[in-house]
Model the fold of this input.
Amino acid sequence: MEYITLNNGINCPVVGIGTFMLSPADAENSVREALKMGCSLVDTANAYVNERAVGRGIRESGLSRGQVFLSTKLWPSEYENPNAVDETLERLGVDYVDLLYIHQPAGNWLAGYRQLEKAYREGKAKSIGISNFEGKYIAELESKWEIAPQFIQVEAHPYFTQTGLRRTLDQYGIRLMSWYPLGHGDKSLMSEPLFAELGRKYGKSPAQVILRWHTQMGFVVIPGSRNVDHIRDNLDILDFTLTGEEMARIAALDKGERYYHRTDEQLVQFALWKPEFEKR
Ligand SMILES: NC(=O)c1ccc[n+]([C@@H]2O[C@H](COP(=O)([O-])OP(=O)(O)OC[C@H]3O[C@@H](n4cnc5c(N)ncnc54)[C@H](OP(=O)(O)O)[C@@H]3O)[C@@H](O)[C@H]2O)c1
Done:
């Protein structure tokens, strides 16, 4: 595994597994199998309603707590719940997480960020992050944070490389964790002839080439999968290096286009929605 060092000195693996849209049964299975294959970074969220299952997957893997970098996210419904962090830890079955995000700039997100800072000071979150806080949101938070975040989690892939945002991140040493790293399974991204060409050169699949590109961009990558063969492939990306010329050819694919377009109306809806958490 390769690691990056965060702006607070903590190390984070560069590749892990994401669990968005995985049912509890699939999340438990994917997390357990990934960890048994050498993965050591797992990303979930209150809103995925699979935190208990992720916790089970970690315990079933046989790895000790210290061997896993566990990331989760507070949903806006929890930003003003003073017990939100403890309830999140209880669902996961751990007494700290390695990374705790606020998931969306919705509702009273500053209260949510204050909860992150408190959890950080108390050792319940070893690092903290903001998710979907591009543009005016990170600009506003910048003037208000007492502790700068270690991570931002945003959509990023070869069609959308977050060029503007990265200039702000560099000022604070904030690292980017890519969501939709494979375009959420979009066929056109994975079918780009360039990834097939580079895959043939290195003996890798197009998905593996894309994931290696993320890590060489300095991004941490958390592809989601319920397929054990894909999970194995997604972890097997660190034994080759794309050349500078190949990275430049991939850069030319950037269309500056997201797959996911969030509206202000959706942010209002996010603030009103409360996940129905797993009971057990
Ligand atoms: N903060 C946020 O708001 C936010 C939003 C979205 C996602 N996320 C996080 O980011 C993670 C990644 O995003 P994502 O899971 O939505 O999208 P993704 O990783 O870009 O794509 C997942 C899709 O790609 C397929 N896939 C995975 N590995 C593959 C491989 N080696 N070859 C071919 N197909 C492959 C998966 O299908 P199979 O199951 O068949 O492998 C699945 O359909 C999430 O799981 C979540 O943790 C965060």
